[in-house]
């Protein structure tokens, strides 16, 4: 099980959840009840971690600093997760970068959190343990209603910017927008940013590791992706001339730019490219963990009641669709085609079992499905006729 979910797994134990079909109002009530049950079970432990300013997951610890700005809106504060720079060097250097990071950004409204990376290597924010730690950090702000789940933002400077380049495409479904300051993408690609507004802030003279040149290349890549898919790949790239690695605070413009966006947890089109740290779930799609392989690319598109999936069937053998009335009308038949062949046609019932499975997969109150459908990635072959 994903380490971030260990806190909430026991909330879904007990008698088997009923699988009878639910109406849309019954399903909405089931989602609320399931979330309330989870909160009742895990709230005390989660708030204890937050009070200690140290999140635990997978044997790693994520200390963090926090500042709150403005009056809390009815739906909850915005949450800005701000990743520090530094990287390979002594702990004292990274501690200094961490303490500086919490002072860099002051939104008009929101909670700013600066986590301290568990290690002191160059790839502070690249490693696999970062994903569940940040998931659990976000959850700690959701269980008491402090934060709006659709207004969580990711940003980072220098090595923290490297982390944003890595984390944003592979965990885009957690965030409403992301901003990268003065970092380097390494091997990562922008495909997964289809539904995540993404901004780049760079000094024009920041030539170490060709950061400035690569920022210009990403500007071209993002523009090309947006031109080919005008409803996706919202982006902003600012390269300040005659400016080095430190941008003298001009990158603070990223926060009001990000705050314009709310997350859509049920996008009609998904582009999912697995990076070197893989994910079993992305938005409303899930694959078995052993089939989440680096380099595999799945595209999903919803048109009315039809869902088309393009799946590398040589690697991914099955796909689970977590469905909601926010995505399709679950009172009507749903058609699903995989690689052009229809593999399902019919009503997908709303059930409490689907609600619980979705919540166990991703403890996010805005992304809970009320129906689930697991399908083969390849349609069954027709038997050869007998001679």
General description of the model:
This protein has helices spanning 6-9, 24-51, 91-101, 130-142, 159-170, 211-228, 254-259, 352-361, and strands spanning 54-57, 60-69, 77-83, 110-115, 147-157, 177-181, 198-203, 235-240, 269-273, 281-282, 285-286, 297-303, 306-310, 318-323, 334-338, 341-346, 371-376. Helix content is 26%, strand content 26%. The chain is α/β, with parallel strands linked by helices. The protein folds into two domains: 3-9 and 21-43 and 266-376, no CATH class; 53-259, 3-Layer(aba) Sandwich (Rossmann fold). The longest helix is centred in the first third of the chain and has 28 residues, at 24-51.
Q: DSSP strand (E) fraction?
A: 25-35%
> What's the overall geometry?
globular
CATH class wording of the largest domain? Alpha Beta
Question: CATH homologous superfamily of the largest domain?
Answer: Alpha/Beta hydrolase fold, catalytic domain
| Helix proportion range | 25-40%
Specify Rg, calculated over alpha carbons: 21 Å
Unreliable stretches covering 5 or more consecutive residues: 1-17
* Secondary-structure class: alpha/beta
* Strand numbers in spatial order across the main sheet: 1-2-4-3-5-6-7-8
Run of helices and strands: HHEEEHEHEHEEHEHEEEEEEEEHE
The number of helical runs is 8
């Amino acid at each position: 099980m994903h380490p971030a979910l260990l806190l909430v797994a026991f909330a879904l134990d007990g008698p088997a959840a009923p699988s009878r079909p639910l109406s849309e109002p019954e399903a909405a009530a089931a989602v609320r009840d399931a979330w309330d049950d989870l909160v009742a079970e895990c709230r005390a432990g989660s708030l204890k971690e937050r009070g200690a300013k140290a999140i635990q997951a997978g044997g790693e610890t994520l200390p963090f600093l926090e500042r709150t700005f403005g009056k809390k809106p009815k739906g909850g504060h915005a949450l800005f997760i701000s990743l520090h720079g530094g990287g390979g060097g002594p702990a004292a250097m990274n501690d200094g970068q961490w303490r500086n990071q919490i002072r860099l950004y002051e939104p008009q409204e929101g909670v700013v959190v600066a986590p301290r990376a568990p290690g002191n290597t160059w790839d502070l924010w690249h490693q696999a343990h970062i994903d569940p730690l940040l998931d659990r950090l976000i959850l700690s702000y959701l269980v008491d209603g402090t934060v709006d789940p659709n207004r969580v933002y990711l940003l980072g400077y220098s090595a923290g910017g490297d982390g944003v380049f890595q984390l944003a495409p592979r965990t885009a479904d957690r965030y409403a927008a992301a901003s990268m300051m003065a970092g380097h993408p390494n091997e990562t690609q922008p495909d997964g940013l289809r539904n995540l507004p993404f901004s780049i802030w760079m000094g024009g003279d920041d030539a170490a590791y060709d950061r400035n040149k690569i920022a210009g290349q990403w500007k071209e890549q993002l523009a090309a992706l947006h031109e080919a898919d005008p409803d996706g790949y919202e982006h902003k790239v600012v390269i300040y001339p005659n400016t080095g690695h430190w941008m003298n605070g001009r990158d603070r413009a990223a926060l009001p730019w990000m705050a314009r966006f709310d997350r859509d947890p049920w996008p009609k089109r998904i582009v999912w490219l697995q990076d070197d740290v893989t994910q079993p779930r992305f938005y409303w799609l899930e694959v078995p963990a052993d089939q989440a392989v680096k380099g595999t690319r799945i595209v999903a598109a919803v048109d009315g009641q039809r869902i088309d999936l393009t799946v590398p069937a040589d690697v991914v053998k099955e796909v689970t669709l977590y469905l909601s009335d926010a995505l399709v009308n679950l009172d009507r038949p749903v058609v699903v085609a995989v690689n052009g062949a229809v593999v399902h046609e019919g009503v997908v019932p709303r059930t409490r079992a689907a609600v619980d499975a979705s919540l166990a997969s991703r403890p996010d109150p805005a992304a809970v499905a009320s129906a689930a459908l697991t399908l083969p990635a390849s349609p069954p072959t027709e038997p050869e006729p007998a001679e």
